[in-house]
């Protein structure tokens, strides 16, 4: 862990350049439903209804949907205008549940869907005239139910993990287009993420526990109770430049349905290092972590604000 500078005053300044008039859907997913790389923003696209009425628009890039199938809309970062040109990725036969760009190759995108498949796409930045892509690089089949979460390994860029409604975690070898192995979980996961070293996977489960997975041993190496509430829980690793080794942040609900976040150390999981109770809103909190400055961002679906904390020198502010 490095001693990152402590930020005492932070004031967000919204940008005047927005991606406007993006047609969205209200389908709930376990993730935020948007993916971003160094060159693109990927969202799930929505078509018109059968009655040909116009759909409502928004100034945010958020999940989209296509009736009867799945379509991905990819927007170049420089096109911050109203009704920007969209590259359409068409191949899924059911609604898309998650998107994730490769952490090394900004033109490689993974998508998963209710059609029980995972598709790997390549969107070349130099091909400015491309408006539609129908053929993915590869199609990965192996889950028995709809696939809802994807996570790339941050150290091995050809390793992808996925989880499904069949309560399993699959590790994929993208280079050889095959499934490396499968790990069965007690129940369906609501989040899945690699640590920064690419050695361990963490996943929060419907049984109110978090499971730490060791892919090399192909087994669950640790499990413990994180939140008493029965609603969806999420987790992120607080590691890297501004974090600490084997430190995890979880969000969930208390017995009284109060939203809360907890900071855990895998060295001692009997009790959390820190617990913060927030409010009684109903939507799960989605955590995001910027390891360069130790900033933790919390957003909730339907919330009109974004909470932020800083992790520094083994404490939060």
TrEMBL record:
Belongs to the WD repeat coronin family. Residues 1-81 form the DUF1899 domain. The lineage of its organism: Eukaryota, Sar, Alveolata, Apicomplexa, Aconoidasida. Keywords: Repeat, WD repeat. This is Coronin. GO terms for molecular function: actin filament binding. GO terms for biological process: actin filament organization. InterPro entries: Coronin, DUF1899, WD40/YVTN_repeat-like_dom_sf, WD40_repeat_CS, WD40_repeat_dom_sf, WD40_rpt. It holds the Pfam family WD40. WD repeats lie at residues 89-131, 140-182. It comes from Plasmodium falciparum RAJ116. PROSITE patterns: WD_REPEATS_1, WD_REPEATS_2, WD_REPEATS_REGION. It comes from the Eukaryota.
